[in-house]
TrEMBL record, chain A:
Its EC number is 2.7.11.22. Residues 92-382 form the Protein kinase domain. This is cyclin-dependent kinase. GO terms for molecular function: ATP binding; cyclin-dependent protein serine/threonine kinase activity. Residues 1-70, 392-423 are annotated as: Disordered. Residues 33-48 have a biased composition (Low complexity).
TrEMBL record, chain B:
GO terms for molecular function: cyclin-dependent protein serine/threonine kinase regulator activity. This is Uncharacterized protein. GO terms for biological process: regulation of transcription by RNA polymerase II. It comes from Lophiostoma macrostomum CBS 122681. InterPro entries: Cyclin-like_sf, Cyclin/Ssn8. Gene3D superfamilies: Cyclin-like.
Length: 450, 294
């Protein structure tokens, strides 16, 4: 690895390098010209041969011979494109900043040659530790594999002058669900929610069948264009489902969308963590606001238990074996028969019984009770009236991303570092439902504890 | 477009016709020798790092992609052993078996200390004190930066196209489809098939850059069955696996030629190392010039 020292270059070497480089460029150009000439020649030759009623062809292609042979069998041809060096980032002209994501800056830009509007995501480079950031490498690799109608399209990766400027070029969508909802007076109507949820679930199903966990599904990562098409973005936390029993970090998924088993320190988890997030998003679409907004890990758990009920040995047998469960004081004997979810979220005024049922299934505390994405797609909710709206009938909105800087209120995805430790502190949930009588009763719903 | 999960990006005709190294005046035979040696270096380093073969194969495919085409890397500019190390490091990052830069640097330092670039498995299996080959902290820092710099170069030249689809599992599925697992020598057959797929990684014809996994798997099975003496159907069974006779023939010939090529290479470089650095390459070219002048 100890090559010729790069530092020993003097002026003469530089001149020599420049000369060599020029020579190489020249050769490249000649080669290309030669290839083009050859291509043209073969094209001409082909044309000529097809123009000519050639005698020779008769030998192989005469009808008699063809009939004697068995019919040509059609074989599948596989396509996966090729590769070429990264283009320079100055092929794009930045228009405005959109937001700062979990590991990079996103901006809206125009490709100079085509005038097409794209989204650029600059990778935050901190490559002193491990070289090119593994999260960015994973995101690029996932996006290259996950080509789907409801997953944002990665067009190419470009680089800047300096080595550590790496930019992902993606299709631009006008909205993200978070900003859109923040600026809407009323939540989406039910047929609109159904369309969004179905598109989202079809993308999640595609990811899961391709062995990809997204691990950071939330409304600010879900984009929407003005033609009613939803796409999942931000694969910075995503990874392939590892071999069984490989430990995974539980420090994934933005707090408000994080499944209870992750909060309780499970190191083995699966696609059901994405399904939990899906439930949070579904609830948020119905409700208009995040449904489980905890300020920290402990409060997040208590918010979840307040809305979804307390875990019991029967509903979630593995619960007490989770690392952080030991430090919790959850009344063991209490059996919450009726899930408080419908009342806690005021669902009766926002969806049907079937819709509330689907939300309860998605937000099941026990990960094993949650349905998989395909089961969700087959759920009766999508079949009953009102039917999902047609994408082309979806209302349009002024685009914040296209015009101005966004505000950012939801917490960030967890950063690499220490896993949350609930252990050590004694957290008491035994009074979680106490004192409710003193609270103001309003807005038409009240918590009833079984 | 949904890309087939069975497919690899392939090199274009223009990429196969020339390379950055040839444009820099490196003789094609020397280029072949160095590519062959660096693929084996990657294989040896991967084995020492206890990596699964899939990760090693991806690294070899990545480095093969790096060296082809007029816009590919040139041996006159980049150290082949560094490209090998950074390719392997990149491949581990994308796998479930990440390795630290320190481990990669130490393993390459050990392989660099050996008197040959033909790493016999016995040689690697000898139990030596690994600690003796650990580099100093200062050296480590320098080599880590070199590792990261080359990683960036590879990503740029490949346009981040690191996707690889491998034929290993596919070949087992094909063998099952051919219903040969009831044969008494089935496990031998499967082993030979996998061995041929590994051979393809070392082919100077860069078979993984020119043919798709179904074709490679089919050709490997064809050869392995002939060798072991397992009878396959009398019909054109390879068409079931989307391989036509012409492609099958090409890959079969390509696979068979690797053995002769390897033997010649070993003879050619007997008692010395294939140059795996820019400096070593320049010395080799200088020596060749002197020989031709004499």
């Amino acid at each position: 690895m100890a090559g010729a020292s790069r530092w020993a270059d003097d002026e003469a070497d530089k001149a020599e390098d420049a000369r060599r480089k020029k020579e190489k460029e020249e050769k490249k150009r000649q080669k290309l010209a030669k290839q083009q000439a050859e291509q043209e020649a073969t094209a001409r030759a082909q044309q000529e041969s097809s123009d000519r009623p050639a005698k020779r062809r008769k030998l192989s292609a005469s009808p008699e011979v063809e009939n004697a042979k068995p019919a040509e069998r059609k074989l599948l041809r596989f396509e996966a494109g090729g590769w070429g060096p990264c283009r320079h980032v100055n092929n794009f002209e930045t228009l405005n900043q959109i937001e700062e994501g979990s590991y990079g800056w996103v901006s809206r830009a125009r490709e100079s040659s085509t005038g097409e509007i794209v989204a650029l995501k600059k990778v935050k480079m901190d490559y002193k530790e491990d070289g090119f950031p593994i999260t960015a490498l994973r995101e690029i690799s996932m996006l290259q594999k996950a080509r789907h109608a409801h997953i944002v399209d990665l067009r190419e990766v470009v680089m800047g002058d300096s080595f550590d400027e790496v930019v992902l070029v993606m299709e631009f969508l006008e909205h993200d669900l978070k900003t859109l909802q923040d600026n809407m007076a009323d939540p989406f109507g039910e047929s609109e929610v159904k369309l969004l949820l179905r598109q989202l679930t079809s993308a999640v199903s595609f990811l899961h069948t391709n062995h990809i966990l997204h691990r950071d599904l939330k409304t600010s990562n879900i984009l929407l264009n003005n033609r009613g098409v939803l796409k999942i973005a931000d694969f910075g936390m995503a990874r392939f489902i590892p071999p069984p029993h490989a430990p995974l970090t539980q420090l994934v998924v933005t707090l408000w969308y994080r499944a209870p088993e992750l909060l309780l320190g499970a190191t083995e988890y699966d696609t059901s963590v994405d399904i939990w997030s899906l439930g949070c998003i579904f609830g948020e679409l119905l409700h208009g606001n995040p449904i489980l907004p905890g300020a920290n890990e402990v409060e997040q758990l208590s918010t979840i238990f307040r809305v979804c009920g307390l875990p019991s040995e029967k509903s979630w047998p593995g619960f007490w074996r989770l690392p952080n469960a030991k430090s919790l004081k959850v009344p063991r004997d209490r059996e919450t028969r009726i899930s408080p979810l419908r009342e806690a979220l005021g669902l009766h005024s926002r969806t049907t019984n079937t819709g509330a049922g689907l939300l309860e299934e998605l937000l099941a505390l026990n990960p094993e009770s949650r349905p998989d994405a395909d089961q969700v797609l087959r759920h009766a909710y999508f079949k009953e009236s009102p039917k999902p709206i047609a994408p082309e009938m979806f209302p349009t909105f002024p685009s914040k991303a296209g015009l101005e800087k966004r505000r950012k209120r939801s917490p960030h995805a967890p950063r690499r570092g220490d896993a949350p430790a609930l252990a050590g502190k004694d957290i008491d949930f035994s009074n979680i439902f106490a004192g409710r009588e003193d609270e103001q009763k309003g807005a038409g719903f009240r918590l009833r504890v079984g | 477009m949904q890309l087939s999960p069975l497919a690899n990006p392939l090199a274009t005709v223009a990429q196969l016709e020339t390379s950055g190294s040839q444009l820099d005046g490196i003789p094609a035979d020397l280029e072949d020798s160095i590519r062959f040696a660096s693929a084996r270096l990657t294989q040896a380093a991967g084995a020492l790092l206890r990596l699964p073969q899939e990760v090693i194969a991806q690294a070899i495919i990545v480095l093969s992609r790096f060296w082809v085409g007029p816009e590919g890397g040139s041996l006159a500019e980049h150290d082949a052993d560094q490209v090998s190390a950074s390719s392997l490091y990149l491949a581990t990052k994308l796998s479930a078996f990440p390795k630290s830069a320190r481990s990669v640097v130490n393993v390459y330092a050990y392989l660099d200390s050996l008197p040959t670039t033909f790493f016999e498995p016995e040689l690697l299996r000898q139990h030596k004190k690994a600690e003796e080959y650990y580099v100093s902290e200062g050296t480590l820092e320098k080599r880590r930066m070199a590792l990261f710099n080359m990683e960036q170069q590879i990503l740029r030249v490949l346009g981040f196209q690191l996707q690889t689809s491998l034929p290993y599992i596919l070949s087992i599925t094909y063998l099952q489809a051919l219903d040969v697992f009831s044969h008494p020598r089935a496990s031998e057959l499967a082993k030979r098939t996998v061995a041929y797929l590994n051979t393809a990684l070392l082919s100077p014809q860069l078979l993984y850059l020119t043919h798709q996994p179904p074709c490679l798997a089919t050709a490997a099975i064809y050869l392995a069955a002939k060798e072991i003496g397992v009878k396959l159907p009398d019909v054109e069974w390879w068409e079931v696996f989307d391989t036509d006779r012409e492609d099958l023939g090409f890959v079969v010939v390509g696979l068979l030629s690797v053995e002769t090529f390897a033997a010649e290479e070993q003879k050619k470089w007997l008692g010395r190392r294939v140059p795996l650095t820019v400096g070593g390459l320049e010395a080799e070219l200088g020596m060749r010039r002197n020989l031709s002048e004499e």
